[in-house]
């Protein structure tokens, strides 16, 4: 290697080192934002007493909106969603024992779910270090979210004893909703009781209201 060639090689190496130093300095001044990733489950966090409705859903018209899937915690990301539903099988009304009986199984569409989902984004509390009061299993207050043809059930975030937090319970109770289906599960089936209804009496199948159309 001649002296001129050696000098050119040293010059190129020096320029490369200088460029690398500038890049490192800029990176130190402007750190890159890390790619978002789901928050890992916190060790020691409380869990709900149940991940399915305490009163099981059985009516096909209701299950169309709220299928039988185990509920999970809401991921915490603002998801673009299609619809949010609430379904219950423990509804009560004033009944006369002749044309209505109960309990009622119903499906509602949540009209403006943003506030409800915001409350459900809160993390589960850490497990309580004190003894929790003995009470029946807390209702998980499940909601069903439909998105791109996939339905996911979410339970309300819980307190240290596994019951829904007060904020989540309030959001669930006050969520504006529209009734879609309502079925009286207590209506008798004459084929089992031996009764033969008259044309004007209660139908032989459970009464159903479907306002989805």
TrEMBL record:
<feature type="compositionally biased region" description="Low complexity">
    <location>
        <begin position="199"/>
        <end position="213"/>
    </location>
</feature>
<protein>
    <recommendedName>
        <fullName>DUF3558 domain-containing protein</fullName>
    </recommendedName>
</protein>
<feature type="region of interest" description="Disordered">
    <location>
        <begin position="182"/>
        <end position="213"/>
    </location>
</feature>
């Amino acid at each position: 290697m001649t002296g001129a060639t050696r000098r050119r090689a040293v010059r190129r190496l020096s320029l490369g080192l200088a460029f690398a130093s500038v890049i490192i300095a800029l990176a130190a001044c402007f750190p890159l934002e890390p790619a978002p990733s789901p928050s890992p489950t916190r060790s020691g966090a409380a869990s709900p007493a149940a991940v399915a409705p305490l009163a099981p859903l059985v009516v096909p018209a209701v299950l169309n909106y709220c299928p039988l899937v185990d509920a999970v915690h809401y991921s915490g990301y603002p998801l673009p969603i299609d619809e949010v539903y609430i379904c219950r099988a423990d509804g009560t009304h004033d009944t006369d024992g002749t044309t209505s009986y109960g309990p009622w199984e119903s499906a509602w569409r949540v009209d403006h779910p943003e506030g409800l989902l915001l409350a459900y984004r809160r993390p589960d509390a850490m497990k309580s270090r004190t003894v929790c009061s003995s009470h029946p299993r807390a209702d998980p207050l499940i909601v069903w979210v439909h998105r791109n043809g996939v339905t996911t059930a979410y339970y309300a975030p819980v307190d240290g004893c596994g019951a829904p937090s007060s904020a989540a319970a309030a959001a669930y109770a006050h969520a504006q909703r529209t009734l879609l289906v309502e079925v009286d599960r207590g209506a008798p089936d004459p084929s089992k009781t031996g009764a033969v209804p008259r044309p004007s009496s209660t139908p032989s199948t459970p009464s159903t209201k479907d306002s989805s159309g």
